[in-house]
């Protein structure tokens, strides 16, 4: 076996982190014949005193990623999963406290929503009060996100969502923009505005001593505000709509200090039907081509006054 | 330019078809301030007297695929989109009737469902009765499917869905199976049963002279029956559940003669927590690992007595 | 527990099949310090006397899909993997022979190619002849396919590939096509022709008594012929190119009786640069927009004279 | 139309950027009958004096994203595409210089590699020296990446790659790690080590006055060093392999100051074949299960001494 020690190299190890990504855990809770479920995808990332494993391959400070996976399953059983955020806090605290070389733990969670399948109206009616309620259909809309980071003393919780696709079929204009020699786009006073919302929001909560936000309710409320602000904004640009969505969350939800939104402009182009003797006017109900690529991409942070921006600006690698 | 004529080759041209795939069309209908929308992905496939284009490259019989795309958009404007099936019938008839060399047209459609975003409770209340209703969020659950085939005289309509993910957290067993020398699976009397429903169903309707089924209502009812049969079946095998789902549709919906279902068994394995001193019993609410691959794959056709099986048996290439 | 027996229903069970899909098996072979590897994704599908499990849930005839997975791994160890086809034949024969209720086995295999990473020129040179050769990089081009079906007496082997993307930057024209009222496409005498080849080819080999084709060499040769026929055909339509590709295989490879090709026309549109005072002529080397959707889709079967068409016509669900 | 002015809100606009993402441009260059091609996916992101468009929807400072798309195509024609980096530099400079409100431009590029299809040995041989060479097959291995950022005075170029899948079938161990109460993983002295390399490397080059690196050669060399360092490292942990890969680049390529690598541990688990009476020892050539999820994820930065770390630590959102 080759031996490696840190060579006299002009090479420095920078930030590093490791852990098990995408542990898929489903927790069922039974309340008599009524079942509940939580369906998560948990990624653990640890960092700390890890120089030696990089230089020599010594694993003396390395808790195996397989162990972090086991911990996710064991904690789901021992403590249950109240919310993604609470579960992530529990995990992050464990790794930082129990492992001396680990100075920082970051837990990222995707959550998939399910809704109940309603009891068959064709089946014989149940005799007792304890109707079976253990059947679910996956909701399939957005994926909920949570990221919990703990460095031993302070906490940061960033929640969010992705893949929430929305569309306004009117009340969107685009005109008055800069025209240079490469500009050919005609102005429009009635267009479709569609996007796939990707958002992250940072909680003001920063430690165990403070009362925790109501994570589940907070998510539902923020999701509602994002949808309503999108729907309710008469839009002159997607930037304006984005700002209204972020500002609505900051104004309505005291627990949130920062919102980052990444909104692809999912273009719906009016099809030119003139060659076929057809008018395709928006006022009459038009036909659109839903394009894939390229697409506009609008991204911004909206902050509570006095708060620092801490969410990374790139939620995408494009 | 090279000239090609059919060489004296021991080579025969067999079945062939061509057309434009995945034309993404969105049709908005305005009813005052209330908008409706249809969001389709339309694939046209034509066949007929097409030997020459294969042998020599002569396009004298070829309607360009670009034209079939244009036709999709023009028809959406001229005739609207009542349902995917009605729209597909309209298109298929057009190609077969208007193009002498085309003997058969097959239209495949994916439909994406949207639901309304409810009006903001934070915005000023609307003054009139004509509340703006033009904001939508994509439903994101299953994709609806329709395939319409016309050979000039007879019709075949096969509708369906894919990507509908369902789960029963109990009332599923698996035991009493064959054991050979490679069998290690333990029997179970309480497992999670989850699948991603992919289904196709063939209508008895076969021509223009007959009254058409109510396509939209038919879809909603069949979807409901599939969900309820899945939920209501105490399952000893996924095959049994599949059969109950298909049979329910045949029994409850007179317009359907054949159902094909492809059900991957999305395994949820009980995690072994004994090494950590934890019991993980289903009766107490257990923790599961949701596996990706491999997965069981159960497929079957369920037919109305006296009907022929015409849906291809492979809805997947795996 | 609910009891189910076959009810007096007007409902018939049609074709059905089951098995474990997507078992990912990697087999390493060591020849001293030189390693070889086979990387497969194996899907087993069994059918036979399976009515009872659908009607009542009795698994008395059901070999668990988990067992079919175990068999894949055990056979990889016991017999090795010479080629995807040989491995599939071995598996199919086993299931049909060893399980009385199983009358037909179909094995589908995806194979991923790897190539060696060349020894570092920076490392110290190896001292002996036995240079370590155990490092690989995934080739990443097409995925190789094989489907083996056995009903106990006769065999069918269909091999193929998918995701092989090719492009000719000239020697492609498109003109002389049908124009109807929805046709707007201009004719062209110099276009890019690009496609993503999906192909299946059926071997004449139909049983154990005959000498088997040389599966590995056959694949390499057919792949070469497809590429060369694509490159060497001056194309007036993608149909013509497709036919030349299929015919080349039939003519050059005696072991093949039937080829099915599915060729999406990956459109590369000339960008209109006139608004910016720029010519964008193909003769000078042009700029193209590589479109995603929609796309033409050209599909056909090419047969050896006297052979029957047995490959299903739809390799795609669009 | 609703009017919006910046309300007296406790809400601040933070970092923001916008542009057209994923413009797919293919540029053909003709050198007689020999063609060359560049196949890019270009994403433009601009920022600067953009408060007003967020607050009021005024687009007076907004160059439309459609214009940035047009610019990509026009520049490809006017100036050609020597390399992704050079093309990105050209674009970035243009936006910052030509648009007063734009203070910073970031261009991200994905590049897809193609290789020539060799001339058919079956076709008639070419008569002249000018053999047609216009046929290509997509290489399909990694995707090359480039990111160019310009704020008007200084430049940053980060290149990289993703989706490069590599495997060592031996010379990898994992033992001597921390064991806590959740650790069950057995130690191993001979395992498969496989990963899908995602890497970014930052050039020292920071401005127009300096001589530019040879972008194409730099990429090829760094790719080679990553592969050889992976292959040549006897590994006691994936962290050690990662460090060797990064350090090799720093040491061998003077133009690079920083490397960030994200390496998923694509687990290949030894299958337990003992229940079937089979040994599955690595020394004999073993059978492995290639797992999908979860997977270890190892990430680190390797720096040239004296350089600052500037590449974001998260190349993934998991």
TrEMBL record, chains A, B, C, D:
Any Pfam family the entry gives: Uricase
Keywords: Oxidoreductase, Purine metabolism
EC class name: oxidoreductase
Signal peptide: none
Catalytic activity: urate + O2 + H2O = 5-hydroxyisourate + H2O2
Pathway annotation: Purine metabolism; urate degradation; (S)-allantoin from urate: step 1/3
EC number: 1.7.3.3
InterPro entries: Uricase (IPR002042)
Record has GTP-binding as a keyword: no
Family label: Belongs to the uricase family.
Task of the protein: Catalyzes the oxidation of uric acid to 5-hydroxyisourate, which is further processed to form (S)-allantoin.
Protein name as catalogued: Uricase
Gene: pucL
């Amino acid at each position: 076996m080759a031996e490696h020690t840190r060579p006299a190299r002009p090479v420095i190890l920078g930030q590093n982190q490791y852990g098990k990504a995408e542990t898929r855990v489903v927790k069922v809770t039974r309340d008599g014949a009524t079942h509940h479920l939580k369906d998560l995808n948990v990624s653990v990332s640890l960092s700390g005193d890890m120089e030696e494993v990089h230089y020599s391959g010594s694993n003396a400070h390395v808790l195996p990623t397989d162990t972090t996976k086991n911990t996710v399953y064991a904690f789901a059983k021992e403590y249950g999963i109240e919310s993604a955020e609470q579960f992530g806090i529990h995990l992050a605290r464990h790794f930082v406290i129990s492992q001396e070389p680990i100075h920082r733990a970051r837990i990222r969670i995707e959550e998939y929503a399910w809704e109940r399948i309603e009891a068959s109206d064709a089946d014989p009616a149940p005799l007792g009060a304890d109707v079976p309620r253990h059947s679910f259909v996956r909701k399939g809309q957005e994926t909920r996100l949570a990221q919990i980071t703990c460095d031993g003393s302070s906490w940061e919780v960033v929640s969010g969502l992705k893949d929430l696709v929305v569309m306004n079929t009117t009340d969107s204009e685009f005109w008055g923009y800069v025209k240079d020699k490469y500009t050919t786009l005609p102005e429009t006073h009635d267009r479709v505005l569609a996007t796939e919302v990707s958002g992250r929001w940072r909680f003001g909560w920063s430690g165990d001593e403070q009362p925790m936000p109501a994570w589940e309710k907070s998510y539902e409320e923020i999701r509602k505000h994002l949808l309503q602000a999108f729907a309710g904004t008469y839009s002159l640009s997607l930037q304006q709509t984005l700002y209204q969505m972020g500002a609505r969350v900051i104004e309505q939800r005291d627990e949130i200090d920062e919102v980052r939104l990444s909104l692809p402009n999912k273009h719906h182009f009016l099809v030119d039907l003139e060659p076929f003797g057809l008018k395709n006017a928006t006022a009459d109900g038009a036909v659109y081509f839903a394009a894939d690529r390229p697409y506009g991409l609008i991204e911004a942070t909206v902050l509570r006054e006095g708060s620092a921006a801490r969410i990374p600006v790139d939620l995408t690698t494009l």
